Amino acid sequence: MPANIDTILFKDIDEPGLNTREVYERRGGYEMLRKALKMEPSAVLDEMLASGVRGRGGAGFAMGRKMSFIPKGTMDKYLVCNADESEPGTFKDRELMQKNPHLLIEGIIIGAYCIGASKSFIFIRGEYDYVADILDAAVAEARAAGYLGENILGSDHTIDLVVHRGAGAYICGEETALLDSLEGKRGNPRLKPPFPAVQGLYQGPTLINNVETLMNVPVILNMGGAEYAKIGTETSTGTKMISISGQIKYPGNYEIELGMKTRDILFDLGGGPLEGRTFKAWFPGGSSSPVMPLTEEVLEMPYDFDSIAKAGSMLGSGAIIVFDDSTSIVDVCYKTAHFYRHESCGKCSPCREGCNWTEKMLVRIKNGDATPMDLDIIESVCNQIMGNCLCVLGDAMAMPVSSMIKHFRPEFEAYIEAKREEAGFGVAIPQTNRGAHAGPGPLLQPAQAA
Amino acid sequence: MPRPVVKEITFTLDGREITAPEGMILVDAAGKYGDTEIPVFCYEPKLGQPVGACRMCLVEIEGIPKLQTGCSTPIRDGMVVHTQTQRVHDAQRAVVEFLLINHPLDCPVCDKGGECPLQDITYGWGPGTSRFIEPKRHFKKPLELSPLIAIDRERCILCYRCVRYSQEVAEDYQLVLQQRGAASYVSTFDGHPYVAPFSGNIIELCPVGALTSRAYRFRARPWDIEGAGTVCAGCTAQCNVELTVRDERVLRVLSRDHSEVDDGWLCDKGRFSYQAVHAEERITQPLVREGAELHPASWEKAIEAAAAALKKAGDRAAALAGGTTTNEEAFLLSGLLRDKLGSSHLATGVGGEQPLDVVRALADPKLQATVPDLEFAHTVLLVDCDPIDEAPVWDLRIRKGVRRHGTKLVVASARPTALDQNAAATLRFAPGGAEGFLVALDAALSGDAGNLGGAASAAGTNATAIQEFADALRAGGEEVVIVYGDRALRGSAGRALLNIASRLNLANVANAGLLELPSTPNGRGLREVGFAAGHGPGFSTISAPGHGAEAIASGLASGDLHTVWLHHVDPLRNYPNRPAWEKALGTAQTVIAVESQLTDTVREYADVVFPAEAYPEKEGTITHPDGRVQRLRQAIGHPRAASDVPGSGVRALWQVISDVARELGHSAGTAIAGAVVSKRVFEAVPFYNGMTLDGIGGRGLRWQEHATFEVEQSDPFVLAVPASLPAKGESELRLGTFRPLWAHKDVDLSPALQFIRAKQVVELSKADADARGIGEGDRVEIGNGTRIPGTARIRAAIPAGSVFVAEGIAEHNANVLTHGIVEVHRVGPGSTDATSIPIQSTPAVEGRAEMPPSAGLPIPPREVT
């Protein structure tokens, strides 16, 4: 952590007993809730808008704006905390919830107060059973202390919170699939629009945010939105939890100020590559972000939402997965495709069939029964998936896979040749016309631009 | 409830300005107003909200970076849409390629081939070749999803239509998707057969050959067949159908979507009972009794015999009509009896006769609700009827209203209905208590506390319950539709109903009113063309009214009446009190029957039998309960007799009646063509004046929209409290009957429907069952003196003290029980009937009907035919 700011979410994180209300309150906990209840909900919203804090779950949409989309007026509104942290490589929310559950609860209560929701949920992935137990205990403590329930802290607001354990599907981290799952249905994404802010849980307006985002709410209220916005870069404000994993010396969770140089993250925090290895590539924001080779240029890149997007990838959930030169990129590619094929819900055709097809082609490559032409088909299939799906799961497979082929094509080709040799298939016969559709052209040519 | 008002807007589609109603879905607007087809698979407006799952309809909309699904985008003013850009073509081609990679492409042996949206869209939008060389997904095939439907999961493109239908339209909640991703497949939750009253609709919904009709599989290809539009005459709902005909045989029944009649759905009875048309058991030539036996006879001989018997009987002749009787047949037959023989002993329904002023008042166009009103009304009230059994598609229509338009449903019936789960209020009265209920409801609405208490206890309920129900009925809004069965109209019930209508001011509210469920499919038409004891065509007054059904039976038994003509009617099966009818038919001098099967009536009692036409062979008109005159059109030729001599087989029934009239010298009752009779009907019934067969066409004409029918308005009637129901002892139960959807002679003769033929069930409450040591599925006997066996079904929603058995079924019919108070007991030790599989025997909430009540029937697995 640079010296100019203190850690925020990780402040006191290793304090023993921080997960109990007593210690949390001793550290100033629930003061912000008291402060919020004295403010108008719109004033709370103004602070959020001023902070410019962007969603920490993956999409990076400004939380304040999302909150402002929730209609005013009396109706059944809901706040849902997305704790389904299922993106491979992401493990920040687990530590935050495990060690500091009351900060999340406080953030949820303030958020619910701000949008006028009386019911809120934490949708936590089923595998985080022990974390859910901690949350349950914390919720019970908060309820006993009058922070949750009817007339919280003597005000006329009713806010309740339910911790709901998911059943273990990646797709339930997608906000609308999460809502379906919460309603007791099959966890399939819904068509958008209508967006959850208009028609979400049980058809009511619903605010869905990630754990880390909601934990920032009391922090922002404490610092003041404008003050918070000074941390980080102009468009990526605040600090970000990152989870570093892969072939690196010191994997783990770190809190950084957005805009920190990639080199500082990987070498100062992560400790650089393992003995005798060199970095090859990384996923900058979870397994669904396009892979980037770790060139000098990339190492100079500031780690924030916009810089990474400009470089052709995304910050996502802040899960950095690093590969060194001992790893075959084909294996990484296969693992990624396999994961998304397995997790595709099957609702929309491009994702269901495209992920399946891509994985099968990669299996063929690994078995030595492929030609370099198959790389063209994989790229084309990925292109056909991207942007055409109901939700972003299809894109989450297509983007890393096509990026790997784009950046490491020679390695793929060498792999294919080597595997063909090994399997005894001999030299690949060049096939033409398999990279593109051989069918008739479009019925009508698009109108020529004037 | 206000129906949506549409505003016209203009948007740009591929560079052209298109004007269309605002908010219309882009796919529809492009097709209807822009002459541009945007391909779709999962989109089907009848299934509710679009889901955007197949991604076939991607289009480019200016201002939105990503391609959008046309099936979920409502058009807005000034929107600029491109459907022919390279980007759109690439996306659509990609989706077709994706859908085909796991599709077996077995079109040459697929039933859908030639009429398959996947084929058509592949030709129009897909790539010509496949790049997919991986192994395809494999499933065992074909599997029976139910005895009626085969499922081929390899062909399935997972468009979700069938699942959405099951979940959101039929609401039977049986179909689900199992697994996920590329391994997803359609199934029932625990693999049990998908048996539901409306299951066949998924065959038509399926855009590929994944769901096929087992009765139609491999019977024809689309280029072998012709479509013939007509109207299903299987029940009162009169759904519009298209018959698939090959070589003069009906091979399939499809819906001919008419939003004001059936909303595009069919029940399984209508969809599969066509097989009875070609059953070997069918009577295809006239029969005449000689000595004790029926023998095939020539038409001349049969007509002579019938004419002679009628001539001899004179005004002691009677006629009953029902089933698929057309307006034309009823008109000719009633004319023959009334004008030539001087008899008005004409009966149709099995309900009590109502006075002519009530019959007229109930036909008031101002009080007439229509089928779409069921969907859009504020409140729908069901009075002692269950649409699922009597007019099945109305059940779907009411569900749609409740689900999508917030219509409030209130149910008052003796037997729990299939719609109870969707009802805002339900009221149970004792079997036979409909009259008391209506009088009590009228009293509750008018604030007549005296009548309220008396009538409520006469109905077997109490004043508070009725008052709460009346409040619930009033609370929804002014648009109220009351659906009632004509069997409920006994005694003062008709007057009470009119009173209720006037207290709710239904005559002056648009989209509100009464909707009758007649007990025979063309009950309304028969009444309107004058086939009734109390009035002539168009409810005209007649000088000498005749007897109703019950009086005809006693008249025949006592010898007052001599001859009876049974037109598509089987009194021993479908009328109450079988012993009385056995006596009547046994005593009658001559029984003339128009019948298609060797029923008990025909076998034991008929003296002259004319072979009946099946509805696909008929030509004529029938009248829907909401007044829509619809046209039956001949789809296939009449079957020939066994001798194969031309002219010896089935003849048109208008012609048969006309021939009998000619034989009797009644020249006014003869005709040379069916269309001539139709013309006469349109002239004779004042409010049918001006109609023509062409005008009726394929969509029908509601006479209320074209003609007037003045009814004298009267003040609300003063009603007396009906007599109390007969007392019952401690161990006795009150008997109610119901006619299951499947209780139909055509179901009995259709091989595909054998598995679901209605058998006798004895439905009783948990308390009564426990008191008698009866468990679900036990064999029980019910009766008082005469007893019939049946299988026990325990339904939590039945109040203690009532028991229900099925009528209209082939064996152990309820109409042999003549006493309204019965005893039930279990027979045989441990006599659980293993073939009885209740779909859901334990309702989730006490007091709610289980789903669906008519479907809990045995489902043995069957071989693929």
Q: Identify the overall geometry of chain A.
A: globular
Report helical residue fraction of chain A: 40-55%
Which residue ranges of chain B are poorly predicted, with pLDDT under 50 across at least 5 consecutive positions? 831-865
Question: What strand order characterises the main sheet of chain A?
Answer: 6-5-11-8-9
What is the level 1 CATH name of the largest domain in chain B? Alpha Beta
Strand order of the largest sheet of chain B: 15-14-25-24-23-16-17
- Number of separate helices of chain A: 17
Q: From the structure provided, what is the oligomeric state, counting identical versus distinct chains?
A: heterodimer
Number of strands of chain A: 11
Q: How many separate domains of chain A?
A: 3
Number of helices of chain B: 26
Features:
heterodimer; A: 450 residues; Rossmann fold; Ubiquitin-like (UB roll); de novo design (two linked rop proteins); five-stranded mixed β-sheet; four-stranded parallel β-sheet; 17 helices; B: 865 residues; alpha/beta; Alpha-Beta Plaits; 5 domains; six-stranded mixed beta barrel; 18% strand
Description:
The complex is a heterodimer of chains A (about 450) and B (about 850). By secondary structure, chain A is α/β, with parallel strands linked by helices. Chain A contains 17 helices and eleven strands. Helices cover about 45% and strands about 10% of the residues of chain A. In chain A, helix 2 runs parallel beside helix 6 and helix 5 (about 90-100) packs across helix 6. The longest helix of chain A is centred in the C-terminal third of the chain and has 31 residues, at about 395-425. Mean pLDDT of chain A is about 90; it is low at about 435-445. With about 850 residues, chain B is an alpha/beta fold. Chain B has five domains: about 10-100, Ubiquitin-like (UB roll); about 135-280, Alpha-Beta Plaits (2-Layer Sandwich); about 290-350 and about 525-705, Rossmann fold; about 355-515, 3-Layer(aba) Sandwich (Dimethylsulfoxide Reductase, domain 2); about 735-830, Barwin-like endoglucanases (Beta Barrel), CATH 2.40.40.20. In chain B, the strands form eight sheets. Chain B has a seven-stranded mixed β-sheet, with helices on both faces. In chain B, strands 29-33-30-32-31-34 form a six-stranded mixed β-barrel. In chain B, strands 2-1-5-3-4 form a five-stranded mixed β-sheet, with helices on one face. The chains are: A alpha/beta (about 450), B alpha/beta (about 850).
